[in-house]
Design a protein that fits this description.
Residues 89-125 have a biased composition (Low complexity). By secondary structure, this protein is α+β, with helices and mostly antiparallel strands. The protein is built from 13 helices and 23 strands. α1 (22-32) crosses α3 and α9 packs across α10 (153-160). Bound molecules: zinc ion (ZN). Residues 330, 347, 349, 351, 430 line the site of zinc ion.
């Protein structure tokens, strides 16, 4: 969605009041109406413009207080979003309004113009700009700048080093003197300097982003990522979702068309702007007709994990696959013809084909027994998990930082990258799983469960998680009902 859609040609000239700057009206109109509404009704923007302008007309009649001051009193974050949408910079709009007063506007309007306030002037700092050049661009004399800087140490400090792209909004009194200055320091911080009887006073404002929870649902057509994107989830959210279910679902092999997912996740917003997607609080995945649930829970000790809705841990001793979203190119077998040696040989592991450099993860916590070359295996990592189990990862291009013989690794930690070292026909991972020294098929293993919710916390757990599951059911029902209409 481009911001430019609200460009000037959308509203006919008759709607322009010409009394004060077009920009002031437009920004006020956008302030009056939440930007989301504006976005949604973009093609029909002018009825809103009309009502907004008539409001302004009234205010103008009743009191001389300029509308731009009202706008200036609003939180800068709101102002900012209106400025983003504003198709023209103030320099241009000032020009435009003077043109309009000169050419198009009726004489009556010209008469009211001098008593009307000047529109706020927005200067966006460019590369190499300093506060004095910004003030100069706004037409503010250097003496006023000195007065502003002298008014408070804090102002001097905050405005001392300005960055390119920062916006400064100057508001002037009818006599042309600087009345207020707004500057946006970063996404959340603004500074406001306002003229009072005692000189300039400084106010800081830090906008707290609003945290809310959002529900999303998607049905898979081919794979998880496009469906997640369609449901509004970021790429990293989709990855997190797949990691949550990684113990139960093999996202490379098990996903079928028609599988569906639901998530309730945290989102940070600022006004209508989405700043960041946060934690997944609850999720549900239907894979080949089987439903899996996951809820995020922080126990009394402060440890956070995902559990099934009835309180079992999602985490298991081993994750199902050491490479995310790889294709299985060869399965475990007790006898097959080796492609290079051309002999019947057992394939005592599973091969995952993936592009060179794709990360390989340790499937369980353990100690690195070997990180080095091992004959036909090429670059190999062997991890010992407890006394009984061992995993092996072969043909790696290289090892991850910190992974060496004797080091310990965590489940899911990247240990190396897909390559084709040793006896190998192309980039892939050869993965082996041993129990008590015997090779087993890792894909057939029943995975061991980690600790469930302790009995003493079960009540607390259910209290927190049942409402999430209830909301998920309710949101899904609403969404399906909407789909049917
Ligand atoms: Zn292999």
């Amino acid at each position: 969605m481009t911001q430019k859609d609200t460009k000037a040609p959308l509203y006919p000239k008759s709607h322009i009041l010409a009394a004060s700057g077009v920009a002031a009206l437009l920004s006020l109109a956008l302030l009056v109406f939440p930007s989301r509404e504006v976005e949604a009704k973009k093609p029909f923007i002018h009825p809103e413009m009309e009502s907004a302008s008539s409001q302004i007309e009234k205010t103008d009649d009743q009191e001389p207080e300029p509308p731009s001051i009202d706008a200036a009193a609003l939180p800068f974050a709101m102002l900012e979003s209106s400025m983003d949408r504003q198709p023209v910079t103030t320099e241009q709009s000032t020009e435009q309004s003077s043109q309009q007063t000169g050419r198009d506007a009726p004489p009556a309007t010209v008469a009211t113009a001098p008593s009307a306030p000047a529109s706020p002037k927005v200067v966006t700092a460019g590369k190499g700009d300093t506060l004095s050049t910004v003030f100069a661009k706004a037409g503010v004399p250097a003496s006023t700048l000195q007065e502003v800087l002298g008014s408070s140490k804090e102002a001097a400090k905050q405005l001392g080093h300005i960055k390119a792209g920062q916006k400064f909004e100057f508001t002037f009194a009818a006599n042309g003197e600087l009345q207020a200055l707004h500057a946006k320091l970063d996404k959340l911080k603004t500074i406001e300097i306002r003229k009072s009887a005692q000189g300039f006073s400084v106010k800081h404002e830090t906008v707290k982003p609003e945290m809310r929870t959002v529900y999303a649902r998607g049905v898979i057509d081919s794979s998880l990522f496009p469906a997640a994107k369609k449901a509004g989830l970021s790429h990293s959210m989709a990855l997190t979702l797949s990691n949550i279910f990684a113990y139960d679902i093999d996202f490379a092999q098990d996903i079928r068309r028609g599988d569906e997912f639901e998530v309730i996740y945290e989102e940070k917003r600022l006004g209508s702007k989405r700043l960041q997607q946060g934690n997944i609080l609850a999720a549900r995945f239907v894979n080949r007709g089987k439903t899996y649930t996951a809820v995020r829970y922080t126990n009394k000790q402060g440890a956070t994990n995902y559990y099934t809705a009835d309180g079992n841990s999602m985490r298991k001793a081993f994750i199902r696959t050491p490479v995310d979203f790889a294709r299985i190119s060869s399965r475990f077998s007790n006898g097959r013809r080796h492609p290079i040696l051309n002999k019947i040989r057992a394939h005592k592991g599973v091969d995952y084909a993936a592009p060179r450099g794709t990360p390989i993860r340790a499937t369980g916590d353990g100690k690195v027994k070997l990180a080095g070359r091992k004959g036909g295996y090429g670059n190999t990592v062997i991890i010992q998990h407890g006394n009984r189990q061992q995993t092996l990862y072969a043909h790696m291009q290289g090892f991850a930082k910190g992974v060496r013989t004797g080091s310990t690794v965590k489940q899911g930690q990247i240990i190396g990258y897909i390559g084709t070292t040793g006896l190998s026909t192309g980039p892939h991972l050869h993965y082996e799983f041993q129990i008590n020294g015997v090779h087993v098929d890792p894909l057939s293993q029943k995975l061991r469960m980690a600790d469930p919710i302790v009995r003493g916390e079960k009540q607390r757990f259910l209290q927190q998680t049942q409402s999430l599951m209830a909301r998920m059911n309710q949101e899904k029902a609403t969404m399906l009902a909407m789909d049917k209409r």
